[in-house]
Design a protein that fits this description.
Elements (H helix, E strand, L loop, with lengths): L6 H5 L6 H11 L15 H20 L7 H10 L7 H13 L4 H11 L4 H15 L7 H14 L3 H10 L8 H4 L8 H14 L2 H7 L7 H22 L1
Length: about 240
């Protein structure tokens, strides 16, 4: 069974408070205990379900950031999250509820940041996928970019980390390798190499899966790794000239 088939059932055993507790309570009739949002997070399955739920809710909020929900964005959510046709109705209920409710995205982002505190690479992956959703209709609006940047800030990402994710969305021939590697052109090769090794470890798909990123959405992590490797190749060439 995919992560989506067990999503609502799986989170019943996860103690939720805050906006997620209220949202899920509307589906599950108050079966979710309103306790600490970090209880039981050590279980990988729970972490995957929370990550998946986070993507659905933030994607729903992002889809109306510029005042309109495009068909392309809805398709991107389905495709990016690899939601099977037989499970789309369940996910759509959560998506539409989150899209239509009055609660803003900020409380959700804050709770996600608290749940995954200490796993900054997992939070970076949320930002990475939100960029994918936003760019699915061929253009990231100012409102969408502003929202993603603010979510990154709420998560506790540095400006360098945010810019690295944003730059990594570009094709390898157009990206600035120093931004991707969170470095400066004036840094020596050894310093940049240390940053490259650190980023490679943090964004390795196996590590992200162990931290709670569902395998259904791991392809974007692989794209991030390709960008990191391409940036390192470019830096080596630039420094050898």
């Amino acid at each position: 069974m995919s992560i989506w088939g067990s999503l609502l059932g799986g989170v019943i055993g996860f103690s939720f408070g805050g906006p997620f507790g209220a949202l899920l309570g509307s589906f599950l009739g108050g079966k979710i205990s309103r306790l600490s949002s970090t209880k039981n997070l050590g279980k990988q399955q729970n972490s995957q379900e929370i990550f998946a739920l986070s993507l659905i809710v933030l994607s729903a909020k992002l889809s109306k950031a510029d005042g309109q929900v495009s068909k392309e964005e809805l398709i991107a959510v389905k495709d990016k999250l690899q939601i099977p046709d037989n499970e789309i109705d369940q996910v759509a209920k959560i998506f539409n509820k989150a899209k239509d409710e009055s609660t803003s995205y900020e409380p959700y982002a804050k709770q996600i940041g608290e749940i995954f505190r200490g796993n900054i690479n997992v939070l970076e992956e949320v930002i990475n996928i939100l960029f994918y959703i936003a760019e699915s209709d061929g253009h990231i609006s100012n409102e969408e970019e502003s929202m993603i940047a603010n979510i990154a800030y709420i998560f506790g990402l540095t400006q360098k980390q945010y810019e690295s994710i944003k730059e990594s969305r570009k094709s390898s021939d157009k990206l600035n390798p120093y931004i991707v590697l969170e470095s400066q052109p004036t840094d020596d090769l050894q310093t940049i190499r240390k940053k490259y090794i650190k980023l490679s470890k943090e964004h390795h798909p196996d590590l992200l899966i162990s931290k709670g990123v569902p395998i259904e959405v791991i392809n974007e992590s692989k794209n991030k790794m390709r960008a990191i490797n391409a940036a390192w190749d470019q830096v080596q060439k630039l420094k050898s000239n």
